[in-house]
Design goal:
single chain, mainly beta, Methylamine Dehydrogenase, Chain H, 4-stranded antiparallel β-sheet, signal
Length: 1097
């Protein structure tokens, strides 16, 4: 390679004096690239980071070692390989187990073994194996060779012995080895008269570190144990019966019940039984336990393996008489049941069986010795008719693929396969090569404890790349993973549904015509359909709280820049200790410690407001003191301090709960108005511009009104401020129109709803018409009410938006949280200790976003908004009344789905699946749901605004128990029709649709007695331009194809058989091999396979 100088002894030089900093020659550059190409990508960077000249100088020792190895000069090869290893370990100080050492240690091990250094060879082989397992754990072929090499080293150091069972002469013969291929003469041990020993197994049964023997005595119907001694001899035989008139022919041993003691399994050919002797600590065994099945006949071969990966050994049996292979699945209570039975060729007469991973797919495979036809056969399955199963794709043992979806996940225009793996909380992706074959499965988590049962695919974040959503039945959630467009996914996002909802199916459409995908969820646990409307909703980091020993019962909170540093600060009123607290902000989402200011003994401040009341361009603080019937004023100073409080009466027994500031008489001085809860009035205090106020003027809000909150705006566009007040007990709002001189007209009221009890009120323009609108939160009815203003001082009737059961909303603020130039509303809900945002569309409509915790038992009753970390997104701060702290919620970006809306499907309905179409030709998305519990289907008609009609039901027979639904135009009349599979009545119902969305039951097709059909899809499988139906029939272990006639009827049924107990749950279709014939993917729940059926004609 142009890198070695000549030498007198072997033509190779061993010293290099090149300047380490000199540039590499072209030959050296090629050598370096060649070395990198032989190293996995994830290991290359460590080599690239090395000084290359120094690295190549050392690596040349490896080249010299290889030269000597090829010439079988093993001592020299050991010398130079050791130099290479030592030099590179110094260079790769933090990577001493780097991939590059694997070949070096392997060569070293071979050389050491050849010269008889067995211990050193074992050590080198083990080093190579450990590195290989670390760097390329799925390189099974190479790993298996490394294990073979390691085993060979061990064998070289031992003298092996032989034990033989002599069938007709009733003994076991022992030949002790000398370690050189020669053995002693036989020493025999009797197995009993007429015992006919037919099989033998070697193990240490009594844990004395000596080799013992277990012998299957076919003639005497027992198993004999010969306990070994340290000198290679054995004690007399001890026997254990295998049953009356039994004939044990085969034997295998293993720890079946995980008690660390070996057990014995026997194949009894005469009684067609599999017998088990469970072992005890001292090498003794219990009474025999037998298992049989109608598929067992003359069982002859045995093997043990954990074929379903549940950490319990299973038993594999070859049945000579019935030409099949059976698997007895082991359980944790010493019990077994037949899990699989695989038929073989008639007359194959299987005898021996071997278990291993023969195709490097990390799954157990089975080979069978077929004595009847003289072959060794790998266990395969054949599918008849015009679909052929040429591929099965493992999803892993015991992970239960529940659903299968076809889509192009890596943008190569080929149909890929998605498996929903319910038992291990993942989805698996098989990328297609376009020739009917696929990559190995790549799994992506959808959240621990999720148990996904269905998936939907769409571009949820508008990046033109497919994403995946799953319905998670165990933790009541929807998970979304976002695609990169190359078949990989990231950024798991979970949307929690209500406890007990148990989502079982999910569909996608645009329900409200905003060009954003929405979710429709069949919720089996609470008999409902759930709607998640897609949008750009804010997400928030976990709450950060601020408190001290004086922060008792925070009752109101605002956000302003109190120290003129351009950073937002937070001020809160603390009712229980009559004080105000300030948190000065750093503009990074964090704040200084609380600074407290008294507002009077027993003052019980309930509302805090900020304004410049003395015209010095420094913000002051005003509080409404419900306890002392006063307004308290804290004049701001220029040093982050406030002057002592000044108090102004709001009237005897007035108890002001709310307040706000504005200029009511156009004198350019700040005035103040309060809502007097006990006084059933509002009180106006006109300001003098020096921090003091005139005597309060009272305006009645009505007897027993108990006003709690107050806001101001110009409602009639006369450039004069008006007042609106929330009257808690009278369930209304009151409008006081201003006259411009500080006085007001009498109150005009608008109802907030029966028994609603409004507690907080805000004003803004929520429909972009330049008129002030009013929003209230109704604590008792759990909703937000909006009054849209006409601009003349009058308003619409209230429009309500629910905040959810038990929320008891107490406070609201407005702001543009998602920067779409439309006002949103944030709500504090002490009933659930959460905040939520209603996102405005700018046209007066709102979408309810997700909720965020304010802490357990927080009792949040006030909030404020501002950008506390300077990232351009509004954050939220909360007054957590019962938690005695201030919470800060920093906005962390956007999420795509908000709070769920529920539509009942009927008591006990247990909706199982849902699908979408336009059933009544109004260009709006409608839904069909199949109700497993009430044996019917239900239609919801969409209104195009994200809401749905009440359900329209179509009954089916008793105990039909529908599980899946598919929609298509089955009779070519341009109306959507419905096909439903019924797992209880073992049939398929066809409902034909009409132009007005009314359906008629036309046909029922049987899938076979006790077949339990589970999944369904519709497509044209024979390219006749007529739709056909394909169903997954779980208990019959079949896929059923029914060909369509184009008039809504079907016939010419074809069955495709899966394996025993495969339990096909779902089917999907795609073009997998580029032949323009639809192929089928089957999710086999029981077999943990995705089965690919390729069309062959």
């Amino acid at each position: 390679m142009g890198c070695c100088e000549s030498s007198s002894d072997n033509g190779l030089s061993t010293s290099y004096n090149l300047n380490a900093s000199s540039p590499l020659t072209p030959d050296e550059t090629r050598l370096f690239k060649q070395i990198l190409n032989e190293i996995p990508l994830h290991c290359q960077q460590a080599i690239i980071d090395l000084p290359r000249r120094q690295f190549l100088d050392i690596y040349r020792y490896k080249i010299i070692a290889s030269y000597h190895f090829r010439r079988m000069e093993f001592q020299l090869a050991i010398l130079y390989e050791s130099k290479a290893i030592h030099g590179l370990q110094v260079l790769l100080l933090e990577h001493k187990d780097h991939f590059i050492f694997i070949d070096m240690y392997s060569t070293l091990a071979t050389c050491l073994s050849v010269i008889g250094e067995v211990s050193a060879a074992i050590e080198a082989n083990q080093m190579a194996l450990d590195m290989l397992l670390k760097h390329t754990p799925t390189n099974y072929q190479t790993i298996s060779w490394k294990y073979f090499g390691l085993a060979s080293c061990y064998l070289e150091g031992k003298a092996w012995d032989i034990a033989a069972a002599n069938f007709r002469i009733d003994n076991v013969a022992i030949f002790l080895g000398y370690g050189n291929g020669r053995f002693t003469n036989a020493v025999t041990y009797s197995t009993g008269k007429n015992s006919d020993p037919s099989a033998i197994f070697v193990a240490d049964f009594n844990s004395d570190n000596q080799t013992d023997l277990a012998i299957a005595n076919s003639g005497s119907g027992n198993v004999g144990i010969l306990f070994g001694k340290a000198d290679g001899t054995f004690q007399s035989i001890i026997t254990y019966s295998t049953g009356f008139q039994s004939h044990p022919d085969s034997i295998v041993c293993g720890d079946l019940d995980n008690d660390t003691y070996l057990d014995i399994v026997i194949a009894d050919s005469s009684s067609d039984n599999i017998a088990i002797l469970y072992g005890y600590k001292n090498g003794t065994f219990g009474t025999v336990i037998s298992y049989t099945d109608i598929t067992f006949s003359n069982p002859s071969g045995l093997a043990l393996g954990d074929v379903n990966y549940d950490n319990y050994l299973d038993i594999i049996i070859t049945n000579f008489g019935t030409d099949n292979v059976g698997i007895l699945t082991g359980y944790n209570n010493r019990s077994f049941r037949l899990g699989r039975s695989y038929p073989l060729t008639i007359g194959s007469n299987p005898k021996g069986v071997a278990l291993g991973d023969f195709n490097n797919n990390t799954r157990w495979d089975i080979f069978i010795a077929e004595s009847g036809i003289g072959t060794i056969n790998y266990l395969v399955r054949y599918i008849s008719a015009d679909f052929q199963n040429i591929l099965t794709h493992s999803t892993g043992i015991s992970i239960h693929p529940y659903a299968v979806i076809i889509a192009d996940f890596n943008n190569d225009n080929k149909s890929d396969v998605l498996s929903v793996n319910s038992a291990i909380d993942t989805i698996g992706i098989f990328l297609s090569y376009g020739n009917g074959t696929f990559t190995s499965e790549t799994m992506f988590s959808v959240g621990q404890g999720s148990h996904p049962v269905y998936a939907a695919v769409a571009d949820f974040n508008h990046d033109n790349i497919l994403d995946i959503a799953t319905a998670n039945s165990y933790n009541n959630s929807i998970s979304i993973i976002y695609g990169f467009g190359n078949g990989s996914f990231t950024n798991l996002t979970k949307y929690s549904l209500d406890i007990g909802s148990q989502p079982n199916s999910i569909a996608i459409c645009d329900l409200n015509n905003d060009d954003v995908f929405d979710f429709i969820i069949a919720e089996t646990g609470r008999d409902s359909i759930g709607i998640l409307l897609g949008y750009e909703y804010n997400s928030f980091e976990d709450q950060i709280t601020y408190s001290n020993q004086f922060s008792l019962r925070p009752s109101s909170i605002i956000s302003r820049d109190f120290n003129n540093d351009t950073y937002l600060d937070i001020a809160a009123a603390f009712a229980a200790n009559g004080s105000v607290g300030i948190l000065y902000g750093y503009n990074n989402g964090s704040f200084r410690e609380l600074i407290m200011y008294s507002v009077g003994y027993n003052s019980y401040p309930y509302e805090i407001v900020s304004a410049d009341v003395n015209n010095d361009n420094i913000l002051d603080i005003i509080v409404a003191n419900a306890g002392s019937n006063t307004v308290g004023v804290l004049i701001g100073l220029n040093n982050e301090m406030f002057a002592p409080v000044m108090l102004f009466s709001t009237g005897n027994n007035s108890s002001p709960y709310g307040g706000t500031a504005g200029d009511f008489n156009n004198d350019k001085n700040i005035d103040f108005v309060v809502a007097n809860y006990l006084g059933n009035s509002i009180g106006v205090l006109l300001g003098f511009g020096n921090g003091s106020f005139a005597v309060v003027m009272i305006y009645s809000t009505g007897d027993g009104s108990r006003p709690q909150s107050i806001a101001i705006s110009d409602f009639n566009q006369d450039n004069i401020l008006d007042i609106v007040v929330a009257n808690y007990r009278l369930n209304n709002i009151g409008i006081f129109l201003g006259r411009g001189d500080g006085t007001f007209e009498n109150q005009i009221t608008y109802s907030t709803g029966y028994n609603s009890m409004p507690t907080f009120i805000i004003v803004n323009d929520f429909n972009n018409d330049n008129n002030s609108d009013v929003v209230i939160c109704n604590t008792n009815t759990g909703d937000i009410g909006i009054f849209y203003g006409y601009g003349n001082g009058t308003f619409t009737s209230v429009i309500l938006y629910s905040t959810g059961d038990g929320t008891s909303p107490r406070a609201i603020r407005s702001g543009d949280f998602n920067n779409d130039n439309s006002m949103d509303i944030v709500v504090a809900s002490p009933g659930t200790n959460r905040i939520l945002i209603l996102y405005g569309s700018g046209n007066g409509q709102f979408l309810v976003g997700p909720t965020f915790s304010t802490g357990s038992k927080a009792g949040t009753i006030s909030l404020a908004v501002g950008d506390f970390d300077g990232n351009g997104l509004l954050d939220v701060t909360t007054a957590n009344y019962l938690g005695n702290n201030i919470g800060v919620h920093i906005s962390s970006g956007i999420q795509h789905f908000g709070r769920e809306t529920i539509y009942p499907t009927g008591e006990g309905s247990r909706p199982y699946a849902v699908a979408v179409s336009d059933f009544n030709h109004d260009n709006q998305s409608d839904l069909v749901v199949v109700n497993y519990g009430t044996n019917n289907i239900g239609i919801f008609f969409g209104f195009g605004n994200g809401t749905l009609s009440t359900i329209v039901l179509y009954s089916m027979e008793n105990n039909a128990h529908p599980t899946a639904v598919a929609i298509a135009d089955l009779n070519r009349d341009n109306n959507s029709d419905i096909a439903v599979v019924n797992s209880g009545s073992n049939n398929i119902y066809i409902f034909l649709g009409s132009i007005n969305g009314i359906f008629s039951l036309i046909t029922i097709y049987s899938t076979g007695l006790d077949s339990r059909p589970y999944g369904i899809t519709i497509a044209d499988f024979n390219n006749d331009h007529i739709l056909d139906i394909i169903a997954a029939v779980a208990d019959a272990n079949e896929v059923l194809l029914v060909q369509g006639y184009g008039n809504g009827t079907f016939g010419n049924q074809t069955l495709y058989t899966m394996g025993y107990n495969f339990e096909p749950y779902a089917v999907a279709v795609g073009y997998f091999n580029g032949d323009n014939w639809l192929d089928i993917a089957v999710a086999n729940y029981g077999a943990d396979y995705i089965e690919i059926l390729l069309k062959t004609c």
